[in-house]
């Protein structure tokens, strides 16, 4: 069985490592990003109807300003983001899967003015007819250098999980910059957009059946057990 490498930032890295270990995988965690807060100007609570959250990092790093929005309706991507939003006092009306755009159909009547709290690298959103989206960047994922133990591990076949297009591009640059051969590394991506960002030349490159952690772990497990590419 090939080892599995998780490169997403903390605390998600530790959560994914634990879940992969529970599946019996030989998993190693190397966070190749550090998530840091970004100074932002919070709009008045009465200037928007609901909040859009594409990551729990938006809640973790929004800072004290988020307290002014307690009780405001919120739409989140995934259970973890929804839990973080509830803990911050937001009224989570939907916590869907499949990316932030997949949450938009769940908007309730009257929620036309949306405030999106997001990371510096984010997917462009087109608001539904009659709605508007105001964006505030509240955090940034800063890329980190390749740790020597990971460089050593990648000298033999391995599977790497990619949770974002940003991670795919950063990992690709690190491999090329350190002379690590793509042809011995398999990549398990959260979705087609993430897979496309990784480029070509890998031993294997596949996207999860659905863009969620469960499907990505299932794909990674299959790739780790595959004796071929």
Structure explained in plain terms:
The protein has 229 residues and is of the alpha/beta class. The chain folds into two domains: 4-32 and 144-225, Rossmann fold (3-Layer(aba) Sandwich), CATH 3.40.50; 38-140, 3-Layer(aba) Sandwich (Rossmann fold). It is 29% helix and 26% strand. It contains seven helices and eleven strands.
Helices and strands: which structural class? alpha/beta
Q: Briefly, what CATH class of the largest domain?
A: Alpha Beta
Strand order of the largest sheet: 3-8-7-4-5-6
| Rg | 19 Å
Helix segment tally = 7
Per DSSP E runs of 2 or more residues, the count of β-strands stands at: 11
Unreliably modeled segments: none
**Main beta sheet, described?**
6 strands, mixed
What is the element string, with H for helices and E for strands? EHEEEHEHEEEHEHEHEH
Overall average pLDDT: 95
Helix share bin: 25-40%
List the helices and strands and how they pair.
Elements: E1 4-6, H1 12-22, E2 27-29, E3 33-37, E4 50-53, H2 56-61, E5 73-77, H3 78-87, E6 91-96, E7 113-119, E8 132-143, H4 148-153, E9 158-162, H5 165-177, E10 185-189, H6 192-198, E11 204-207, H7 213-225
Parallel strand pairs: 1-2, 1-9, 4-5, 4-7, 5-6, 7-8, 9-10, 10-11
Antiparallel strand pairs: 3-8
């Amino acid at each position: 069985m090939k080892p599995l490498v998780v490169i997403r930032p903390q605390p998600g890295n530790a959560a994914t490592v634990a879940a992969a270990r529970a599946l019996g995988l030989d998993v190693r965690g190397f966070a190749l990003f550090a998530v840091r807060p970004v100074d932002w100007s919070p709009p008045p609570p009465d200037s928007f109807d609901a909040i859009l959250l594409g990551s729990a990092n938006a809640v973790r790093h929004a800072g004290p300003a988020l307290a002014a929005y307690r009780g405001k309706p919120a739409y989140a991507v995934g259970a973890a983001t929804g839990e973080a939003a509830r803990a911050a006092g937001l009224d989570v009306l939907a916590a869907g899967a499949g990316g932030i755009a997949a949450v938009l159909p769940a908007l309730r009547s009257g929620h036309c003015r949306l405030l999106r709290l997001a990371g510096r690298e984010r997917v462009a959103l087109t608001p539904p007819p009659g709605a508007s989206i105001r964006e505030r960047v509240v955090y940034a994922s800063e890329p980190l250098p390749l740790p020597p133990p990971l460089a050593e591990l990648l000298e033999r076949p391995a599977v790497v999980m990619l949770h974002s297009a940003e991670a795919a591009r950063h990992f690709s640059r690190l491999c090329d910059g350190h002379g690590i051969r793509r042809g011995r590394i398999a990549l398990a991506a959260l979705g087609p957009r993430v897979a496309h960002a990784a480029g070509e030349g890998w031993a294997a490159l596949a996207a999860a059946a659905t863009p969620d952690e469960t499907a990505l772990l299932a794909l990674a497990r299959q790739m780790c057990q595959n004796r071929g590419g």
